[in-house]
């Protein structure tokens, strides 16, 4: 017995010892005789590798060596044995490897040993030592820090996995060969598995205590530790282990079981104290203290650290008991319940044996890969074909049975009709998906908000259009006033001539808006006319709109409930048969996966056909179960058919089906109408946004035009003022000054005032925002032409008399509109930049509806 260094003392298992065995000669001789000398020469390296592994196993564990290296060595040797077993049968039989004898000593009674001419004893001993090494790794870990505690817990679980694998796969075979020691028995392997699980769970208890988890959780973890130790003690104290193990082991496990039962009571009492359940707290503490006192009576030989831990726990519990009794006598005055009346403490298992199948899997080993006779390979292939034929035939029967059930139930409208009677209505899957899509997008109740967005966008476009027209009209009025005041001296072109192109475009936009308003009105009218139809889509849940299957108004014999109950019971039986078929199919696949007869083939000396007949017979039972399942299903379907006919007649099921189909069609029509209106609204939103871009663009052009005209106006006023100032030269070469008359001065002042008024903004700049638009539906393209700047310049360039000084190039509009100056208007005869959008063709965006689409371009 070994003890850990932490406060909580734990146990580790010592390895079994063995005698030296030469694997090389017997195996090579068997290969040479059975497969030929050439094959024996080819596998020389493999034989040397196996011999070296056995020599390393025979060496006693070195205290300075790493336990991890010892673990890896044991794993490698076990996989080598798994490769050897099906190829070279080891037994007293003269046709097998009969000169090999393995000897192993008992790990707990070193004076006892077992010798067998069987590889099963060798594999069982290696598995035992693997579990022992894992337990030593766990015990050597430093459990005072988190990393060491985790390593200890994982290693104890791995040790439990190794002993569990020994119990399930090797112990029985080793014992069957005769002469195996007690430590390799099924009972001992099971006991060691529980012991390792107890110590792994104990590591978790140390963790929850260190992490200051709630007392209720600590109690559950501690109780599970105690349960594992109790199971271990029960096996240890019964034959054949009761007389085999040292008394200190039994005392240690017994005291541990009592310690953690008391620990669970102690932690649970802390939780009870916090809840002020003082009566039960006192009872729990007494129970735990009595358990410790009883266990301490038989604790002879137990390690002193364990006794110290038990005494400390007992002291804490006595202190708490004394405090609780005083508080109860002074304050609570609660009745102390009897111990027998208390419920058992809850337990929470946080550990399990680590699966060793992956670590011990020899499928990737290359040792002796050439040693598989052709006859054995062909025989194995023949057997595999036989198994595949059985699996395929039975799987087809199972699938056919499931398909028949599905079709028959659909024909009888089951179980939908039963669900409808209970109010659990359902819709077809395609309708459910369409309804969910409608409700996610807002449903019919959300269409009014989208219509309001259309109205807002139309209003914004109308306001932009009016502002743009007023901008041009204001400039034209001012130009007319100057022309009236200055007469023939005002020589620049008239505004109406230059803005004709812009006015035409604004008129077209106005026509677009009028046509769009008509389309909006048609949409609103369609929504009003169909809102009652579409309102069904806003029902939540939508199944509430479906008709219900009602009971008959008058009952003749009152057996409706009994009939429905019998039909539901039959459907449950049918469902159970379906689940059984799925389980049977999984069993077939699992049986095929585990059906490896290669070792038996290579070790068998009898007829292969007899072996195949014996092995294939294990599928007879599952085939019979499949046949019984199919037969039971046939009888049950006939019974359900008769019950459903009676059910349909009593509950008038045909009329219900007609009403249900009518509801389905109504919902489908509502979805179609909703999508139609929704698509039209989306197209309207896209149209108004596109039109707003176009109007904003032309408004900018008009602003630039007005700015340019203001510049020209200022220059022309200056020129007229110079002319009116009368700056002339006489014939004799002397300069004379002609001062303006009062009328001329007034004319100049009026022109300046008009120019200042012209430069003042006529409308404040409004900021417009757009509502979010939906992404186009798949398969749909935008039906409206885009809007951009026109291809023709808004007005021709002025004469050279009014050229403006050179300005920086404007790359947005391309070529300049006036010679020597690049302004905001481009020449329609010059190519446009590649990044500029194509010119917009003005077309009516809202033609009369065509097939329900209110927004379709002409």
Describe the secondary-structure layout.
Layout: H1 24-34, H2 37-42, H3 44-58, H4 67-87, E1 102-105, E2 113-116, H5 119-140, H6 146-176, H7 186-210, H8 215-236, H9 247-274, H10 278-296, H11 304-332, H12 357-360, H13 374-411, H14 416-421, H15 429-440, H16 447-486, H17 495-498, H18 500-534, H19 560-594, H20 598-603, H21 608-616, H22 620-651, H23 653-725, E3 727-729, E4 735-737, H24 742-759
Antiparallel strand pairs: 1-2, 3-4
Helix pairs in contact: 3-4, 4-5, 5-6, 6-7, 7-8, 8-9, 9-10, 9-11, 10-11, 13-19, 13-22, 15-23, 16-18, 16-23, 16-24, 18-23, 19-22, 23-24
Subcellular location: Cytoplasm; Endosome
Keywords: Coiled coil, Cytoplasm, Endosome
Organism: Canna indica (Indian-shot)
